[in-house]
Write a structure and sequence with these properties.
Helix content is about 5%, strand content about 40%. The protein is mostly beta strands. The chain has two domains: about 25-380, Integrin alpha, N-terminal (Methylamine Dehydrogenase, Chain H); about 390-475, Immunoglobulins (Immunoglobulin-like, Sandwich). The protein is elongated, with a radius of gyration of 27 Å.
């Protein structure tokens, strides 16, 4: 199923230091998602795979997880994952992608008799049909194991660490790429917390302590024997400390969306860093430049070595509680500067854009589970856009003199797009037979022998210019009557035969 192409509309700021171009690549909103399913509650992205959870609150609606894969520069839905044999599961409340196995891990805290479980799906051929389930051996009814799941690359090459929370603790499996889950979780629990948020990178793992009181950081290498408990400075009670977490190279980003005593009372994200030891110290908190009271900035956070994406699902831009997400870019060693604000122009009241975010390199995905009566949607962005992205371009062709020729391009970019068509590397000028030289569609009517040549188009937006590949237009010679590419006696004979028959 192909996703509809969308025109990009982003709300931006003037005066943001080091502002960078961001383009919306696609809006994901499968047509089979029912009202109330909240597609976009959870998101994950890694390379050419994006995963979006739709964990319906009412099981009659059918919880599901949707898989999208990038094919020929388009994000195509390739699977809809479900647990038909496990009722009442809230399947998809959290999702993660294995960095080594490329398996998709899904949390289902109400699976079975509501004790919960984690499932992993693998791709067999072109279909996501492999499935592995794991529960907590000691769990009982209503434990809610599988409230969250996280997979990270292990310090031991070829292995992955799978973390799952619930039943008042966080549990861990070290697994190989050949078997994404190896039986039920039976290992020692690591700290008393249902941990709504989990994060891991390299040698370290972090999880939220009970009742959002603080965040515990543990060393994987030391078998979790060494740990520290961190609380951000300058926040009061009921701040939802650690509501979201993300880790990257020696950086921990801790969402504190209820820190209303901070600047503009919109919420904050506390940043901690490590010099490679267990000790982690806070060095700054970041805030949105235009935040307002109750935006819940920090409800979600995604991290890469050079960028942070932070969700504020109750921001009032462009409508009440329509939501927003903010991009911060690393400048120097310790400075993180807001460089972009994401708020697609089609958002409406209560869409909750920013409820979930994830980032991989220069690409981010943002969930908006409140869209269209809580059917939900998700948006994928290029955070380092260098110009429009060409989605479709007319193919080469051979035509006959007198035909009408149309060449078209479909592209997405930031702001207003402008077009210029070229022939043989030179800009085309409009004439009585050539029109649309500065539009997405070039028309030549009628075509002549001189129409022969290579055509291309350059598209410009506020981020730069993108040039298309050449489209070769061949023109048949009128003397090549039988159109075999050669002018010879057979063309004359075919002409005489047609003339004699009256055709």
């Amino acid at each position: 199923m192909r996703n509809a192409l969308v025109v990009v509309t982003l709300l931006g700021f003037s005066g943001i230091a080091g502002a960078q171009c961001v383009s919306q690549i696609v809006r994901l909103a499968p047509s089979d998602v029912p009202i109330g399913n909240r597609f976009g509650t959870s998101v994950a992205i890694s390379g050419d795979i994006a995963v979006v959870g739709a964990p319906a609150a009412e099981e009659s609606l059918g919880s599901a997880v949707y898989v999208f894969e990038k094919q020929s520069n388009l994000w195509i839905q390739t699977a809809r994952l479900t647990l038909p044999d496990r009722p009442n599961h809230r399947f998809g409340v959290a999702v993660s992608i294995g960095p080594i196995s490329r398996a998709i891990f899904v949390a289902a805290p109400r699976a079975g008799t509501t004790q919960g479980m984690v499932s992993a799906f693998t791709k067999i051929g072109s279909a996501w049909t492999g499935r592995f389930d794991a529960e907590l051996s000691s769990s009982t009814i209503f434990d809610g194991f599988g409230r969250n799941v996280l997979v990270s690359a292990s310090v031991q090459s070829g292995f992955e660490e799978v973390f799952a929370s619930g039943a008042d603790n966080v549990y861990r499996q070290r697994v190989s790429s050949s078997s994404p889950l190896q039986g039920n979780f039976t290992g020692v629990n690591y700290f008393a917390s249902n941990s709504a948020a989990l994060a891991s990178y390299g040698d370290f793992f972090a999880g939220t302590a009970s009742s959002f009181g603080s965040t515990i950081i543990k060393s994987i290498n030391s078998q979790f024997n060494n740990s520290v408990n961190r609380y951000p400075f300058g926040v009061g009670g009921e701040a939802f400390v650690g509501y979201s977490l993300a880790m990257t190279e020696n950086l921990l980003a801790m969402g504190v969306p209820g820190s209303f005593n901070q600047p503009n009372s919109s919420g904050s994200v506390a940043l901690f860093r490590s010099s490679g030891q267990v000790y982690w110290g806070q060095f700054v908190s970041i805030y949105p430049s235009d935040g307002q009271f109750g935006d819940f900035f920090g409800a979600s956070v995604g991290a890469s070595p050079t960028r942070l994406v932070v969700g504020a699902p109750y921001a009032n831009a462009p409508a009440v509680d329509s939501g927003a997400a903010y991009v911060f870019t690393k400048q120097g060693t310790t400075t993180w500067t807001q460089t972009s604000k994401l708020a697609p122009g089609d958002l409406q009241s209560s869409d909750e854009f920013g409820q979930a975010v994830a980032i991989d390199g220069n690409v981010a995905i943002v969930g908006a589970p409140g869209v269209s009566g809580s059917r939900g949607a998700a948006y994928i962005f290029n955070l380092a856009a260098g110009g429009p992205i060409i989605q479709q371009l007319s193919p080469p062709r051979t035509i006959s003199p007198g035909e009408r020729v149309q060449l078209s391009v479909s592209a997405e970019g930031t702001g207003t797009l402008t077009y210029q068509w070229f022939k043989g590397g030179l800009p085309l000028q409009g004439s009585s037979s050539v029109s649309g030289v500065s539009t997405p569609t070039l028309t030549i009517d009628p075509a002549e022998l001189s129409t022969l040549g290579n055509y291309s188009v350059r598209i410009t937006d506020s981020c730069g210019t993108t040039a298309s590949s050449n489209i070769f237009i061949g023109v048949r010679c009128p003397s090549d009557f039988n159109r075999d590419g050669v002018v010879d006696l057979f063309d004359y004979l075919d002409f005489v035969s047609s003339f004699a028959s009256g055709c």
